Amino acid sequence: MRLTTKGRYAVTAMLDLALNAEKGPISLADISKRQEISLSYLEQLFAKLRQQSLVSSVRGPGGGYKLSREPEAISVAQIIDAVNESLDVTNCERQGNCQQGQQCLTHHLWIDLSDRIHAFLSSISLASLVQQDEVQEVSVRQNSARELGLLDVSGVQ
Amino acid sequence: MRLTTKGRYAVTAMLDLALNAEKGPISLADISKRQEISLSYLEQLFAKLRQQSLVSSVRGPGGGYKLSREPEAISVAQIIDAVNESLDVTNCERQGNCQQGQQCLTHHLWIDLSDRIHAFLSSISLASLVQQDEVQEVSVRQNSARELGLLDVSGVQ
DNA sequence: GTAAACCCGACTAGTTTAGTCAAGTAAATA
DNA sequence: TATTTACTTGACTAAACTAGTCGGGTTTAC
User: How far is the CA of A14 from the C1' of C17 (A)?
Assistant: First the structure.
């Protein structure tokens, strides 16, 4: 299993989309500024999110991305899966052939942990994240800082 | 967060130690054969396990490693931690300075997931693994296959 | 027709994993 | 005390992956 910035960026970007949904299509440039994620990298991630039908795109000026389903119907697990990060912590991809075609000593333990991680992240939808107080606060901060021009966003990272 | 063969090997090797404890010190060569883990790699892992006082070593002929505590007092989380694999899935190492010194949008989510993974693996001791039926079965298989010479272990992987 | 935005593929520096290899040191037994 | 077994340490490495960059497209609103 890996859970790196790739998966975290994807979830963060999708949450940004959910939070700003009422503004119409959101450009990757906007997400890039608000969330401080490289635009080119976002393009890579959104290519995969689009392939998995989690977002749809609108081309041309004023275009951008929007969620292709209700935020209630998109779980964090689905997003991480879409960008090819696996939540599986077994070595054998759950097949039980970890040692000469048979189960290794700790197979059951890793299956169990994988199931718990998956269950947790499947139980969390974008909609439930949007409702959290912490998320609301950060979102307000991000939007106000930007509108007030307080952040020098130009060349940062 | 990473959970790779490094952490899995460490847990497997420690469980092997717990299962074969009554035989006295267990050599890395034995663990290497039973669990099919490279001897040199085991040496690296056990150096770290010893530094964290999870095992103690006995030198000389007939020597090897043994658990330095009761198996009830060693958790899977401790073992993974000892070999420098982090169970933390945040980007900021829980510090909350993920975005320009303040929390990123998904900070709380990753803290929550990290806590759950840690709680799960902390709740599992070597002793509780030893008692599991699946583990018992695999252990019996490993020992009998070896004593009967059914496994060609020489050049495999 | 031009600019805003998405789309796509090639490339890459750096890090980590999962080891190998070689040269030791410590201690039990003959 | 010689020998052997086993631990100990450190240097090295191929392959894979991450987290990007770069350069060119294409689509569409105005």
Answer: 31
Q: Above 90 in pLDDT, residue B153?
A: no
Please answer yes or no on whether B35 and A134 come within 8 Å at the CB atom: no
Task: Return the closest-CA partner of residue B13 out of A66, B85, B30.
Answer: B30
Does A104 sit within 8 Å of B12, measured CB to CB? Answer: yes
Q: What is the distance in angstroms between the Cα of B25 and the nearest Cα belonging to chain A?
A: 20
For helices B133-147 and B28-35, give the axis angle rounded to 10 degrees. Answer: 100
- Rounded to an integer, what distance in angstroms lies between the CA atom of residue B40 and that of residue B29? 10
Task: Domains for chain A: give ranges and CATH numbers.
Answer: 5-87+126-147 (1.10.10.10)
Residues 124-143 of chain A within 7 A of strand C, judged by CB, are none
**In Å, how far are A36, A137, B26, B102, B130 from A144, measured between CA atoms?**
15, 11, 62, 14, 55
Cβ of residue B25 lies below 7 Å from strand D: yes
DSSP one-letter string for B32-49:
HHHHT--HHHHHHHHHHH
Each residue's pLDDT tens digit, B39-61: 999 999 999 999 899 999 998 99
Its pTM stands at 0.90
Return the nearest residue to C6, CA–C1'.
A59
Amino acid (one-letter) located at A130: V
Measured between CB atoms, does A144 come within 8 Å of chain B?
no
